[in-house]
Amino acid sequence: MIILADSGATKTDWCIDNSPNGHIVIQTEGINPFHQPEEKIRDIIRQQLVPALPCSISSIRAIFFYGAGCIPPQSKIISDILGENFPSTELHVETDLLGAARALCKDRAGIACILGTGSNSCLYDGQRIVRNIPPLGYILGDEGSGACLGKHFLADCMKGILPTALYDGLLDELKETPASILERVYRRPHANRFLSGIVPYIYRYKGHSEVHDFLTRSFREFFHRNVLPYQSTLPVSFTGSVAWFFQDEIKETAASLNLITGLFVKNPIGELADYHFKTNL
Fold first, then answer.
1. Contacts of 205 (CB under 8 A, 6+ apart)
2. 8-17, 103-112, 142-151: which range is least confident on average?
3. Is the bond leading into 20 cis (omega within 30 degrees of zero)?
């Protein structure tokens, strides 16, 4: 039996090959070794994943874990913690970006992008990532991500760039004040998750001209900083909740830059299952 994991800042999907009955998905809290202490990651594995497994640990042959922040040496943290719980299991820990590329492109060349709580992109040759522009996180980068959309939308509201009615509605939606927002962003943990939580509000008003312009500017910045430098004519495919819900705005912006868009997938775990389970990888 094989387990696939796709892990981001908000959630982790664990897909278990339960042949001949297809596969099942277990969802736990997100895992990111850059932002979480090791004990927190251990707790997620031990308390949320292991008790939910539909099989014995000894029956699991391999785990393929694709996660945000899983680059050396952080990937070893995940591998070691998984090894503590699955001592006889073959373990593979890779970046969520490679998982996205395999899900979106399979064995074809393309540009694969993640637009969720964070953002990332790569040039993929059908087997491996050949170039990656570093995402740099929501403070220095992550353009087009949920965290950055929330950050810039909130800032535009607070600075009076967007209409007052949008700002008033946002404060009411969040049940926050300007002072408590600053507290949430600067003094509490997981500011990226708080900021990404503004995205459903943005989506609700995306038909307003000011919000539409805000979105196309945001996605244009993503393309300029994370896709155009590849200097490629290959299709650009996307996974992640932001990409899924703002497909129209992304396609419109891509077309204005003469880019060809490919596949849009809300959650890569199903496509990853096709890649691994059908090719026996």
1. 166, 169, 211
2. 8-17
3. yes
